[in-house]
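Dear support,

I submitted the protein below through the web form. The confirmation email said the job was done, but the results page showed an empty box. After a refresh the structure appeared. I'm attaching both so you can tell me whether what I see now is the final result or a partial one.
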Amino acid sequence: MSNHCLAWAPQLDALAAAGWRAVLPDLAGHGRSDPVTGRTTTEDLAGDVVALLGVLEVAAAPVCGLSLGGMVAQQLLVDHPKRVTGALVASAGTNLTFPAAEQVIASWKDIWLAPDGPRKRLEATWEGLASPAYRDSPAGRAFYASWWRLLGEVSGQALAAVADGLLSFDVTEALAGV
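What the results page shows now:
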């Protein structure tokens, strides 16, 4: 899981070759999912993933999450442990309820709420998201172009609503019991 499934596209062939069935959801307000209209928490997003597993008739599955997807994976571990057989979490903390995190989230919201904000955020962060070799490769340039096009359809207000929901994210103590 990630903000949107496109982030995992480069890994799909390897996952399939290794025999994995990969489900790449676009989290609410991200990618091609419907925009959210109000504050959306990791609990809400984890509930959406559980609902998706139900539709797919999957009792339990390993999850992998990056950034927001990593927070959702942790929330799944806490709230729905019987639905998760294992978890890989990358670039995601366990708590965003402290002042420095609030400032970072506010800066994200400022970018997302600006005209063409989702694309501006990609432009501002792309260098840190991919290695120079990948960014300069034909695959990397094509990936960036696809992501940039997709972000032209994503609501900055929806991303800001999800960011608002992150202000209550704290699974630090609960994870100890998992």
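Response: this is the final, complete result; the empty box was a page-load delay. The longest helix spans residues 99-113.
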